[in-house]
């Protein structure tokens, strides 16, 4: 694992690769290793997701699917390797000499603002209407102005076909509608 005393050197071929379209991957796992003690869950995983591409992770229990997502959400730290998101290292900071070192908590918080995940067991606030559920985090966590958050929430609801549900409570929505709100 890269530490401050032994920085991870960025190999020449580690610059996010571009595909045949000339567009760099949105997400790229570059030789990512994840260990829990002596147990290696991911062993030099190389994996890319291109912008607009839909990917499904399929495998038996214990094969690393959830670990991949937890690493991408920065809920876990990589043991080795680098995860790139939109051309930048997700959980590392680039030093002036080009080497990488593990990111601090401040940078990780900034990284988390750019990535979202809908959990299988999602929770909406039952006492809040749809619009309130969607604007709660942007206003109270990201510090967004309420008017801006509401405008963005209305755009997103329109995008997923729920523009007519802004004043509904979660109990008034189907399971699929609740998941789209989440």
Write structural notes for this entry:
With 182 residues, the protein is of the alpha+beta class. The protein has two domains: 12-112, P-loop containing nucleotide triphosphate hydrolases (Rossmann fold); 130-181, no CATH class. 26% of the residues lie in helices and 19% in strands. It has helices at 65-72, 105-112, 130-140, 146-159, 175-181; strands spanning 27-36, 39-49, 80-85, 88-89, 92-94, 100-102. A four-stranded antiparallel sheet has the order 2-1-3-4, covered by helices on one side.
Overall residue-averaged pLDDT value: 83
Roughly what percent helix? 25-40%
Strand content: 15-25%
Strand order within the widest beta sheet: 2-1-3-4
* Helix and strand composition category: alpha+beta
**Could you describe the largest sheet, including whether it forms a barrel?**
4 strands, antiparallel
Ranges with pLDDT <50 over ≥5 residues? 1-20
Identify the CATH class of the largest domain.
Alpha Beta
Superfamily (CATH H level) name of the largest domain = P-loop containing nucleotide triphosphate hydrolases
The shape is globular
Rg over CA atoms: 19 Å
- Calculate the terminal CA-CA distance, rounded to whole Å: 35 Å
Proper CATH architecture of the largest domain? 3-Layer(aba) Sandwich
CATH topology of the largest domain: Rossmann fold
Instruction: Give the helix tally.
Output: 5
User: What is the strand tally?
Assistant: 6
**SSE ordering:** EEHEEEEHHHH
Assembly annotation: single chain
Number of domains: 2
């Amino acid at each position: 694992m890269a530490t401050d005393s032994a920085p991870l050197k960025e190999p020449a071929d580690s610059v996010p690769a571009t595909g045949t379209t000339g567009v760099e991957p949105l997400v790229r796992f570059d030789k990512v290793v994840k260990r829990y003690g002596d147990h290696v869950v991911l062993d030099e995983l190389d994996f890319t997701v291109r912008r607009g591409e839909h990917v499904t992770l399929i495998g038996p229990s214990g094969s690393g699917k959830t670990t991949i997502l937890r690493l991408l959400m920065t809920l876990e730290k990589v043991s080795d390797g680098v995860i790139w998101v939109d051309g930048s290292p997700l959980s590392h900071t680039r030093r002036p000499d080009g080497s990488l070192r593990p990111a601090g908590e401040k940078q990780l918080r900034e990284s988390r603002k750019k990535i979202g995940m809908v959990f299988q067991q999602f929770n909406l606030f039952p006492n809040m209407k749809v619009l309130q559920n969607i604007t709660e985090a942007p206003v109270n966590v990201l510090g967004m102005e309420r008017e801006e958050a509401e405008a963005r929430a209305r755009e997103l609801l329109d995008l997923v076909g729920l523009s007519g549900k802004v004043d509904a409570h979660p109990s008034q929505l189907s399971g699929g509608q609740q998941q789209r709100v989440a």
